[in-house]
Specification:
The chain is mainly alpha-helical and 273 residues long. It has three domains: 50 residues, no CATH class; 67 residues, Serine Threonine Protein Phosphatase 5, Tetratricopeptide repeat, CATH 1.25.40; 85 residues, Serine Threonine Protein Phosphatase 5, Tetratricopeptide repeat (Alpha Horseshoe). It contains 14 helices and no strands.
Length: 273
């Protein structure tokens, strides 16, 4: 009698169709996995496909594709850039302010110190002011943008927009504080002082005069010069200093620097003298 391992029954041959089906299924799995990888943030061309959609005018699809990339897995730098592009495209190119707000805030929640954080904050300011009709909220975002990136060349403009929005919301004291910050930036100093003067005309003509006088010094073009001079003359009138106002206008007219509005004021004051 022989002892040993029990003999296994021979396997039934696999049908050719079953083999083919298994090969096809495996190939499909590999292709699907490769496609998913190629469309993920891990792909070196991750940002290219949405960019091509945007270039072809399919902006909504591009924004959604960027948003999908941002929500997936992959390198943080790619997901951050995708999140910003989704938000920026939605805010600028699509007529959907509520979705733009969600995507901008989602970007800031995920990347509060990201390279586009100041841009996202400023975009929210623009969105609330122009599309959502909430100037006080707009000012909050513009102020945050300027605080996050104080050395950004646009920081002065953001403070200026914040000041104007606060003035539109009848928050005069907060507006004056924001305009003072804007005036620290030479490129918008005159505009900030003009806005300050206008705010102060009805409450403190002397301070308004000072603001318009500083705006004259900082004016960067004839338009700002004329607006500042007209404000200065108006402040003098509010202070009951009509002779000084007329002298200011006499000088502007004699030098040929008076625009139509200044000349009308000049003629009126001379007629009332």
């Amino acid at each position: 009698m022989r002892f040993g391992m029990p003999q296994r029954a021979p396997r039934a041959p696999v049908a050719p169709r079953a083999v083919l089906a298994r090969v096809v299924l495996a190939a499909l799995v590999v292709v699907a996995a490769g496609l998913a990888w190629w469309r993920s943030a891990w792909s070196p061309a991750a940002l290219d496909r949405p960019a091509r959609l945007a270039a072809a005018g399919r902006v909504a699809e591009a924004a959604d594709a960027y948003a999908d990339l941002a929500a997936g897995s992959g390198p943080a730098s790619v997901r951050e850039e995708a999140a910003w592009r989704a938000a920026a495209l939605t805010a600028v190119d699509l007529d959907d302010p509520l979705r733009a707000r969600v995507r901008l805030q989602r970007y800031l929640d995920a990347w509060p110190r990201g390279p586009h954080a100041a841009d996202a904050l400023a975009a929210l300011g623009e969105l609330y002011r122009r599309r959502l009709a909430d100037p006080a909220e707009a000012a909050r975002w513009w102020s945050r943008a300027a605080e996050v990136a104080p050395t950004d060349p646009r920081a002065g403009r953001w403070w200026l927009e914040a000041g104007r929005a606060l003035a539109a919301a009848d928050l005069d004291d907060e507006a004056l504080a924001a305009l003072d910050r804007a005036a620290e930036h030479a490129e918008v100093a005159a505009a900030a002082r003009i806005a300050t003067g206008r705010l102060l005309l009805d409450r403190d003509a002397a301070r308004a005069y000072e603001a318009f006088d500083e705006a004259l010094t900082d004016a960067r073009d004839d338009y700002q010069d004329d607006i500042a001079r007209l404000g200065l003359v108006t402040a003098l009138e509010r202070m009951e200093r009509r002779d000084s106002a007329l002298a200011e206008l006499d000088e502007a007219v004699a030098e040929g620097d008076a625009d139509e509005a200044l000349e009308r004021r000049w003629r009126r004051l001379r007629a009332e003298r």
